[in-house]
Design a protein that fits this description.
Length: 109
């Protein structure tokens, strides 16, 4: 699998559109499309944001290292998804903009 394919797969796994991913990264939908079609690639400044938004390691995203694929919330954060309802909430949370995620976290605290 190539970088464009891994990028698209990670985006789709979260249920994000190209427009939503672009919004999170402050780029256009056409920029994300160019990355996914191999016409262009993101610059170094965007790699940390891609890692955070998509929840994948850069080793996986760039090199295809399967061991560094989708982040393991249980290992990294001491949490696990225990039901379909929790999985649904997590997917919905990941679709929110960063500012809305922060607002939700503040509300819950």
């Amino acid at each position: 699998m190539s970088f464009p394919e891994r990028l698209k797969a990670a985006r789709l796994a979260l249920g994000l559109t190209q427009e939503q991913l672009g919004f999170e990264l402050d780029v256009t939908k056409s920029t994300v499309s160019a990355w996914e079609n191999g016409r262009d690639a993101p610059g170094f400044r965007l790699l940390p944001a891609l890692k955070q938004v998509l929840g994948v390691s850069l080793d996986y995203l760039i090199c295809g290292d399967e061991a560094g694929g989708i982040a393991d919330p249980a290992g990294a954060y001491g949490a696990e998804v225990r039901s379909e309802a929790e999985a649904h909430l997590l997917k919905r949370y990941r679709k929110l903009s960063r500012s809305r995620q922060e607002g939700l976290k503040a509300l819950l605290d």
